[in-house]
Design a protein that fits this description.
Helix 6 (about 140-145) packs antiparallel against helix 8 and helix 8 packs across helix 9. This protein is of the alpha/beta class and about 200 residues long. Helix content is about 50%, strand content about 15%. The chain has helices at about 20-30, 40-50, 70-80, 100-105, 120-135, 140-145, 150-155, 170-175, 180-205; strands at about 5-10, 35-40, 55-60, 85-90, 110-115, 155-160, 165.
Length: about 200
């Protein structure tokens, strides 16, 4: 069974974004239903909050004409979930971006800073790299494993923690939403994988 397609959310106040080459090419490559454009930053924030259960790449405009501060929006989105992949797109030269903004991007794990003047091909490559990264992340690997199960098995209680029953899909959603339970599950999965690898290494010695 194939993985759930990644969703690409563009938050950009360009009123013509719907006809721009980057939007058209992304729709052609990943499907119109998986490419979402929000002209209003607040609408973009709301949409992200309501669709956290999918692998998500956000292409965020740097300058909103003074209506919204990109850094504030970026940090608020990061606060929603640390599992989002951000590409900030700007027509500014890097040396023209305030140092405090660059520090905020670095400290909050911005994945890519794109130059709009490089053309849409550069952004497409950044999206491809983002998808490669997402495909190797714990929640995405878990998603692939869960989707191999029949639906009724995915929705059946799989484990109980502190009196709360979780199905496989519940566990995946908790990881995607970056909840305390989700973080604990991710840590446990990684620890288990490391333990199994270490056992294999010890057998080779």
């Amino acid at each position: 069974m194939q993985k759930q397609p990644v969703q690409i959310i563009i938050i950009d106040d360009d009123p013509h974004m719907g006809t721009r080459p980057i939007f058209v090419k992304l729709c052609q490559a990943y499907g119109k239903e998986n490419v979402i454009w929000k002209e209003n930053p607040n609408d973009g924030l709301t949409y992200v909050k309501e669709h956290l259960t999918r692998r998500t790449i956000i292409i965020l405009d740097y300058y909103f004409g003074g209506k919204v501060n990109c850094i504030d929006l970026f940090q608020e989105l990061q606060g929603v979930s640390s599992l989002l992949y951000f590409i900030v797109s700007t027509a500014k030269q890097i040396e023209d971006i305030p140092r405090k903004d660059l520090k905020a991007f670095i400290n909050n794990h911005l994945m890519a800073l794109g130059d709009k003047t490089d053309g849409y091909h550069a952004t497409l490559k950044q999206v491809e790299k983002a998808i490669d990264y997402l495909n190797s992340r714990v929640d995405c690997i878990l998603e692939e494993w869960i989707l191999r199960h029949e639906r009724f098995k995915r929705e059946t209680p799989y484990m109980t923690v502190d009196g709360t029953a979780y199905s496989l899909e519940d566990i995946l959603n908790e990881i995607r939403k970056d909840t305390a339970f989700g973080k604990k599950m991710t840590s446990n999965i990684i620890s288990t994988a490391i333990t199994m690898m270490q056992r294999d290494i010890d057998k080779i010695k």
